[in-house]
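Hey,
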Amino acid sequence: MPEKYSGLRTVQAEHIDGLGHVNNIRYISWCEELAWQHSEALGLSVSDYQQLDRAMAVYHAEFDYLAPAFEGQLLCVNTWLSFAKGTRMTRRFEIARHDTGDALMTGLWQLSCIELSSGKPKRFPAEFVEVYLPEVIAEVTAGG
């Protein structure tokens, strides 16, 4: 069974906004950084995307900010794939306090496989099927 991919981030002074907590855009930036790290750990980098003339492009993003984070806190950023089929994939995120596990933000990206040279949707190349599909963590629904 695949597991969530995780990374740690320590909140620095430059991450704090005028309201005294981590700026929301920083959360999104950490998610993007971790998504690329996850993809590279699985074996697909930006250069692979370029060679294949394919990429997973975000067409919808959702982020729910649940609680603030403050300078000096250690945070755990998690990502995982929850759906992949045809031309579509869903990547989920969670940022939580490392010490308590309390979720600070949850989010998702809905992605579409595109041909880089045209920008048009295309089915997953074999390399995406081999790398991404085995990593999908099935959605868990109430009662099942």
